[in-house]
Design brief:
The protein is of the alpha+beta class. The protein is 31% helix and 22% strand.
Length: 990
């Protein structure tokens, strides 16, 4: 039977029309130049130049397949800065001082120990933990930061010896060199086995870094001249082009395009025919600029096509015509692109190739259908074993063999356009809604409320992110204010500028700054100084005084860089002081004294009418915009105006700074920032629903196990209760968990691990699917609005409607007291609560790199993967990705989550139907007696597993063996085609 299956699968591969595939690797680095200091603040151009910028084209080129590479202007310029020794980065300078035996300052030593921002910025799982000396140094570092008081850098640094710093600098620089590249330098390769290093070792490693950097651009030039690759242009600073166009900065965009064209001709010897829009972000203005600049083709995301032509296939080639001149548009495939970027890092190359080819079965097999795989060229590989070297060799070697056998055809993009231009589909003109940045958007706190304009265009305004939206770059307060800083700077300085003045503006127009400022993708801490230095230099080089707000240590909208503590009604400060707040007043008690600063983040921070002070009473730089100060030494209250403080008496009233009950305040004392929540009056909170969940049921189907990383403390996914309140203009959803787990990854909402899904039937339930949980809802629980309540990164603060539309960042999400997480949802987005509403609540694990921002659930747990899932359900794609369901009993949860059905077809493929969950809560009587009158409706179907063998009812080990045989069958077919050795077909037992 197995031989028959293998024959059938092989026949399918060989008889099918070749599938057209395009690979585009996007190489880009932000500007790291601090124009005030004259150095590069971050080392990532250098770090990737000693690895991925060289090894990816070298290893892929060995296979002989055709691929394309992009290079941003900012990357080309900075590579040249290193090669010419114009600038180097701060970590290189520190390393060089150590190598030369020069003493480091206390601050330099401390900077080496920061995470992020120091010499531990390298993959811990694949690199740090696999080197014994690096592991020891990380342990010393973590112990120091946990035991020393916050901000006491002397205490932290004193735990490290001079040899420790030599070893740390050498390991960081040494282990970032890709293994494939390092082998070309035998003396450097041999260092990887050492556990103690000399200053000469470090000096040699730094010499190799500079040698490798000088080889990057000549390599791409040579490959392009030999026609082995296609090089694709990226506008100079990687600007977020649609939003700059919405601001009216079209002339700036032309400069970005022209500068990159000059760089490509000068350093790479080519005039590219294709252009990569930064972040794959486009609108009609952008496509028109590309066309006018002479480009033949461009590329964006499949979600942009969905918004442009609903129902159209992203496997086709499209075009837009402007005045008789066409530009062709590719739409990348997210599944395969994200597979290479994220999922395949945990797979063997053969398994990844099997998955890749299996996906291609759904692609139309006509002459001009094409699958476009486009992803970061530099970032994924450190997450792969051995920096991805083995994967790249075997995966692309496998594709090369499949191409030789006629199964697939790999194209350079320009060649494909020339082949299929006459069969391309036009994008029809229709009405679209674009943002309007010609007005002040600083006063808006949600992307949903931003002003827009209606245009007649050919393409929706969108990007690769958040379902095709631009939400990562706009909508958050810090992002909105940043765009207005940029807009006002252009207005203040003007645009008819010489290069020395223009350059900092171009740096400031990079997409990277708003990308980080929103906090959806991580902390902006390391990028914030670069962005501000660019605007400061823009003003100063034009002979103008920069605005005061550019010197703040806070982010543009006033968000502090780091929060060290939180409190409701009171917060304890270091050095013995406690700040208290009630619904009307703020006061300080405790031993000692000092100046405490307060900021109300709900106040708009528009640069056109800036409010708040960035310097304290004693001239110190502040980490917040201070609206008020209290000097506890003499109990004097100050308010800020025009950047200065004025005494206003002895009583600090919250309304002085516009604060209301339920608001949060930022509190700064001695350089540390805290969050203080103003308590609400009990009469403001009307209890609507209160439900308890059984403790200890954080195992989903009954067998799920937490990932192995220690951040997943027992109980972080154990939902204990849910409460719903009416607060007048909003509803408050409160979730209590057994263990909060802290905020190990600095989630913007104050937590990092949990991800709550709430599905609400408001009387017209229209959908029974869930948003990535792998389960469905029964007919009675079908939803028309869903709340995705996570740490606040992109997708983690989202209201979704049954028609697929959604609102980002409209909820106020924060930690509450007693291991609770609170989400306040404005009623204008979900309506007034009615007792007929039905709510289904799930708790899963947040993972910003996982599909739908949910962690992977597998058979065997590892550091980041949930274990204990039914192997057959995983293969069939119906394993529930849920840790806990709000349910009356443990049995009700388990029966619901195990109600999926799985069958194995005669060809060995597993198929299935997802579990149907019918556990929901509704209010049937007045809220005054809600605790006694909550009604739980539970409708379950028993688990039914349909198979053609007995394996699904045997032990888990036998099940895994059967699943592995199926995977091996696929790999066997590929091995037959690829000519791989039999050892690659060995079954893997877990």
């Amino acid at each position: 039977m197995r031989r028959i299956i293998l024959f059938l699968v092989l026949a399918l591969f060989l008889l099918a029309q070749p599938m057209n595939i395009i690979f585009v690797f996007h190489n880009h680095q932000p500007w790291y130049i601090d124009l005030e200091k004259g150095e590069l603040l971050l080392p990532w151009v250098r770090i990737h130049s000693v690895g991925n910028y060289l090894k990816v084209p070298l290893l892929v080129n060995q296979s002989g397949v055709s691929v394309a590479y992009t290079l941003s202007g900012s990357l080309i310029e900075q590579i040249n800065w290193y090669a010419n020794r114009t600038y180097v980065d701060a970590r290189y300078k520190i390393s060089q001082k150590i190598a030369e035996g020069k003493p480091l300052t206390l601050e330099e030593k401390y900077s080496m120990l920061l995470v992020p921002g120091g010499f531990f910025d390298i993959n811990w799982q694949n690199i740090v933990y696999k080197h014994p000396r690096y592991t020891v140094l990380l342990g010393i570092r973590n112990d120091a930061f946990s035991k020393c008081p916050p901000g006491n850098i002397t205490c932290i640094v004193s735990r490290f010896s001079e040899q420790d710093f030599i070893d740390l600098a050498t390991l960081f620089n040494l282990l970032w060199i890709d293994p494939y590249i390092a082998r070309q330098y035998p003396d450097v390769w041999a260092m990887r086995n050492k556990t103690s290093f000399t200053r000469n070792d470090l000096k040699r490693v730094l010499e190799v870094h500079m040698d490798l950097i000088s080889k990057v651009l000549p390599l791409y030039r040579a490959l392009a001249q030999q026609k082995r690759v296609e090089l694709v242009l990226v506008p100079y600073s990687h600007p977020l082009m649609p939003l700059l166009a919405d601001m009216g900065a079209l002339e700036d965009l032309k400069v970005h395009i022209r500068l990159s064209q000059n760089l490509f001709e000068r350093y790479l010897g080519v005039s590219p025919t294709g252009v990569w829009p930064p972040e794959q972000a486009v609108n009609d203005d952008v496509l028109r600029l590309f066309t006018e600049s002479g480009f033949l083709w461009t590329i964006t995301d499949e979600d942009v096509l969905k918004a442009t032509m609903p129902g159209a296939s992203h496997f086709g080639l499209y075009y837009v015509d402007y005045g008789g001149r066409r530009i062709y548009v590719f739409f990348r495939d997210k599944t395969l692109s994200d597979g290479l970027g994220f999922r395949y890092a945990s797979m063997k190359p053969e398994e990844a190739l099997a998955d890749f080819m299996n996906y291609l079965k759904r692609v139309p097999r006509d002459e001009c259908s094409v699958v476009v795989v486009a992803l970061d060229g530099e970032n994924p590989w450190e997450n792969y074993p051995n920096f991805g070297d083995d994967f790249l060799i075997k995966f692309f070697g496998g594709l090369a063999q499949l191409e030789k056998n006629g199964t697939i055809k790999l194209w350079k993009p320009t060649d494909f356009v020339k082949r299929c231009s006459e069969k391309a589909t036009p994008l029809p003109q229709r009405e679209f809604e674009y943002f309007n940045l010609k007005v002040d958007i600083s006063v808006y706190t949600s992307i949903r409320d931003l002003p827009t304009r209606i245009v007649q265009g050919r393409i929706a305004e969108g990007s690769w992110s958040s379902g095709g939206s631009l939400a990562i770059w706009i909508g958050d307060v810090d992002e909105n204010v940043w765009w207005m800083w940029l807009k006002k700077a252009r207005e203040d300085v003007g645009l008819n500028l010489k290069w020395d003045v223009l350059f900092p503006l171009l740096v400031a127009e990079a997409s990277d700054w708003p990308f980080w400022y929103g906090g959806e993708m991580g902390s902006p801490q390391t990028f914030d100084p670069v962005a501000k230095s660019a605007l400061i230099a823009f003003y100063r080089r034009a002979g103008l005084q920069p605005p005061m707000y550019l010197f703040s240590l806070a982010y543009p909208g006033g968000t502090p860089r780091e929060i060290v503590g939180r409190g409701d009604g009171k917060v304890a400060l270091y050095e013995g002081l406690t700040v208290y707040v009630n619904t009307t007043h703020i006061w300080i008690e405790g031993a000692g004294c000092g100046v405490v600063y307060f900021s109300n983040p709900t106040l708009p921070r528009s640069p056109y009418f800036f409010r708040g002070a960035v310097y304290g009473i004693h001239g110190e730089k502040l980490h917040i915009y201070a609206d008020m100060a209290i000097d506890s030494c003499n109990n004097t209250v100050y308010l800020s105006d025009g950047g200065k403080f004025y005494p206003v008496g002895k009583a600090a009233r919250s309304y002085f700074i516009g604060a209301q009950p339920g608001d949060k305040l930022y509190v700064e004392f001695n350089g540390l920032v805290y969050v203080l929540t103003i308590p609400e009056s009990p009469v403001q909170q009307k209890l609507l629903m209160e439900v308890a969940d059984p403790p200890g049921d954080d195992f989903g189907t009954g067998k799920y196990r937490y990932p192995k990383n220690p951040v997943f403390k027992p109980g972080v996914f154990d939902l204990l209760g849910f409460t719903l309140y009416d607060l007048g203009d909003r509803l408050r959803f409160m979730f209590r968990v057994r263990e909060f787990g802290g905020n190990p990854w600095s989630g913007p909402a104050g937590f990092s691990l949990q991800f709550f899904h709430v599905y609400i039937n408001r009387g017209r339930g229209e959908r029974n699917d869930t948003l990535g949980l792998g389960v469905t809802l029964c007919k009675e629980a079908m939803w028309d609005v869903a709340l995705l309540i996570g740490p606040g990164w992109s997708g983690g603060n989202r209201i979704v409607y049954s028609d697929g539309s959604f609102i980002d960042d409209a909820m106020a999400i924060r930690p509450g007291p007693n291991n609770t997480i609170v989400a306040d949802v404005p009623k204008k987005y979900i309506g007034e609560f009615e007792k007929s509403w039905k709510l289904t609540v799930f708790l899963t694990s947040w993972d910003g790199y996982g599909p739908d921002n949910i962690r992977r659930f597998g058979v065997v747990e590892d550091e980041w993967t949930v274990g204990g899932a039914d192997a057959a359900a995983v293969l069939a794609g119906v394993a529930p990705r849920v840790f806990d369901v709000l349910a009356p009993t443990v049995d009700a949860q388990v029966r619901a989550l195990t109600s999926y059905k799985v069958s194995r077809l005669p060809n060995g493929t597993y198929v299935g139907a997802p579990a149907s969950v019918c556990i929901f809560y509704t209010q049937e009587k007045p809220a005054a007696t809600i605790t006694a009158t909550i009604t739980t409706t539970v409708t379950q179907t028993s688990r039914e597993t349909v198979t053609t063998t007995q394996y699904l009812t045997e032990t888990q080990k036998e099940t895994v063996r059967e699943v592995n045989w199926v995977a091996t069958a696929i790999v066997s077919v590929l091995a037959f085609i690829l000519g791989l050795t039999p050892s690659l077909l060995a079954k893997r037992e877990r």
